[in-house]
Amino acid sequence: MWVLQAIGLFLAAAAWRLTGSRRFGEVLIRSLSTKNENLKNIAGILIVRAGKKAKPLLQDALHRRENLPMTLWLLADLGDRMVDKEIQPFSSDQDPKVAEAARQALRVLGSNRERH
After folding, report:
1. Which has the least CB within 10 A, 18, 30, 42, 66?
2. Per-residue pLDDT tens digits for 20-65
3. HSE of 46, CA atoms in CB hemisphere, 13 A
4. What are phi and psi of 60, to 5 degrees?
5. How far apart are CA 114 and CA 27, in angstroms?
6. DSSP assignment of 27-96, as one string?
7. Does residue 56 have a cis bond before it (omega within 30 degrees)?
8. CA–CA distance, 1 with 104 (Å, rounded to integer)
9. What's the N-to-C CA distance of the chain in angstroms?
């Protein structure tokens, strides 16, 4: 039952924020690959709400090419311009979904830059 899994995600997010343990944050990162869209979206929201604490986990996932294109979008949602250089190579990825996600992420980061 996905509702119980969702509760587990909220608990993992709370434990991650309280303890700073990567293990709890990695639970959320792994949940990005689930087939259940509800769980995937909940995990994504909780990751972005963690703010800067999420950046190292998302960067690790990016380097391992895990959960692309979702990882690209989430990195852009954090709004940290320093990830431009990490996202840029994915804009010419052979997988068209990954390439498009990278281009969208770069646009988001660019529009955030214009507002600030």
Report:
1. 18
2. 999 999 999 999 999 999 999 999 999 999 999 999 999 999 999 9
3. 27
4. -60, -45
5. 34
6. HHHHHTT-S-HHHHHHHHHHHHHTGGGGHHHHHHHHHTT-STTHHHHHHHHHT-GGGHHHHGGGGG-SSH
7. no
8. 33
9. 43
Q: Which of 59, 8, 2 is nearest to 34 (CA)?
A: 2
Structure tokens at 102: 């990278």
Domain that includes residue 41, residue range: 2-115
Position 96, amino acid: P
Structure tokens at 70: 């979702």
How many distinct structural domains can be found in the chain?
1
Rounded to whole angstroms, how far apart are CA atoms 12 and 101? 27
Give the residue from 75, 70, 79 showing the smallest Cα distance to 55: 75
